[in-house]
Write a structure and sequence with these properties.
The complex is a heterotrimer of chains A (120), B (88) and C (164). Helices cover 78% and strands 3% of the residues of chain A. With 120 residues, chain A is mainly alpha-helical. The model of chain A has no long low-confidence stretch (mean pLDDT 79). With 164 residues, chain C is an alpha+beta fold. Chain C has two domains: 2-42, no CATH class; 55-160, no CATH class. Chain C has a three-stranded antiparallel sheet, with helices on one face. The longest helix of chain C has 28 residues, at 55-82. Classes of the chains: A mainly alpha (120), B mainly alpha (88), C alpha+beta (164). Chains A and C meet through helix 1, helix 2, helix 3, strand 1 and helix 4 of A and helix 2, helix 4, strand 1, helix 5 and strand 2 of C. Chain B: This is Multisubunit sodium/proton antiporter MrpF subunit. Chain B: Keywords: Cell membrane, Membrane, Transmembrane, Transmembrane helix, Transport. Chain B: One of its GO terms (molecular function) is sodium:proton antiporter activity.
Chain lengths: 120, 88, 164
């Protein structure tokens, strides 16, 4: 009975987090921002759902679920990082929309001083 | 518990719909890659809910496989896009 | 026999194998070791100095990362609901505290779990990380990001750094 309640709370919070992440994917203005929504709430959501599921299973199956959680926790940051880097290198990033842009400041300064304009 | 499962599956379905909208709308290839990655995560989440409902763990290895294949796919796609743009 | 010197990798792969099966038995463990040795021999990773093993620090790091992830999820969700298309972001330069490439890699990966951030570019010669962060409102927030990243790097070095 208690496991049912705990599991239900985890599952609901997880699904809500997944839904919010998906909404972020649609509502946020540009790719790097959407990437944040794709990584954080999604990973958190999946984690909660898998935990909620693991509680309802015997130990054997729960152990394998923990493995899936670890896979997701390790791979999500890597995907986020690689897609963000691709976006940055291919110039998809909308720099004018940024509040602070210390990377551009450095590149400008180096261009003025005739130094290397950052690694490509 | 049935109401909980219905709610959870409903939210996941809504999330999947919204995600597909982003896949269709793009605008860039990388937007689609990111959205498809989310879609894979949602599939894994939904199969976890199935497992929770029937207390049947026989599809868990499948979930692990889907999660890993999704990762390799997203990384490959992102790198491919980078190469395309460089050749342009 | 470089496989022998890669025993930690064999150990990890065997643990993953056993977890995949979900049960532990002599047959599964032996099978796991065989597969792990084969994988390690066929796809060797570069041999690096072994990471220090500090279980308590590792556990703490895991806890902090988990907390970061929860805060992060909530923050991105808030940003989506409250601002949506009007959400603002920025790129902040963060001093890199370590020279180790491996720790830099771990820091970059962990950054993707801290609130609204992802590392865009690493300038190792200049000792800077360029971090994209969602939800910045002005220069004051940049200081907050720098302090947060400093804490993250500090924790990472305390857990995986060569020596103290």
């Amino acid at each position: 009975m208690i496991t049912d309640v705990v599991s239900a709370v985890f599952l609901l919070l997880g699904a809500l987090s997944c839904l919010l992440g998906a909404l972020g994917l649609v509502r946020l203005p540009d790719l790097p921002a959407r990437l944040q929504a794709a990584t954080k709430p999604q990973t958190l959501g999946l984690l909660l759902i898998l935990l909620g599921t693991a509680i309802r299973l015997e130990f054997e199956n729960a152990a394998t679920l923990i493995l899936v959680i670890l896979f997701q926790a390790v791979t999500a940051p890597v995907i986020s990082q690689i897609v963000a880097r691709s976006a940055y290198r291919t110039g998809t990033l909308d720099r004018d929309a940024l509040v602070v842009d210390e990377l551009a400041e450095r590149m400008e300064r180096e261009a003025r001083e005739g130094g290397p304009a950052g690694r490509k | 518990m049935n109401i909980v499962f219905a709610l959870v599956l409903g939210m996941l379905a809504a999330a999947a719909l919204v995600t597909v909208a982003r896949v269709l709308r793009g605008p860039g290839t990388l937007d689609r890659v990111a959205a498809l990655d989310v879609f894979v995560v949602l599939i894994v989440a939904a199969s976890a809910v199935y497992i929770a409902i029937y207390r049947d763990g026989s599809t868990i290895p499948l979930m692990a496989a889907v999660a890993l294949v999704g990762f390799v796919g997203s990384v490959t796609a992102a790198r491919l896009v980078e190469r395309w743009e460089r050749h342009r | 026999m470089t496989v022998l010197r890669r025993w930690p990798q064999v150990l990890w792969l065997t643990v993953v194998w056993v977890l995949l099966w979900g049960t532990i038995s002599v047959k599964i463990v032996i099978g796991g070791v065989l597969v792990a040795v084969a994988v390690t021999a066929l796809f060797p990773l570069p041999l690096l100095p072994r990471l220090p093993f500090r279980p308590w620090a590792l556990l703490q790091l895991g806890g902090h990362l988990l907390a970061d992830l929860v805060v992060s999820g909530a923050q991105v969700a808030w940003e989506t609901l409250r601002y949506g298309p009007g959400a603002r972001a920025g790129i902040v330069a963060v001093p890199l505290l370590t020279e180790s490439e491996r720790i830099t890699t771990f820091v970059a990966a962990a950054t993707a779990l801290t609130p609204g951030s992802v590392v865009l570019q690493i300038d190792r010669a200049g000792g800077r990380l360029y971090v994209y962060t969602l939800g910045l409102r002005g220069p004051a927030d940049a200081t907050r990001v720098r302090r947060q990243m400093e804490r993250l790097q500090d924790r990472m070095m305390r857990t995986l750094g060569e020596k103290r």
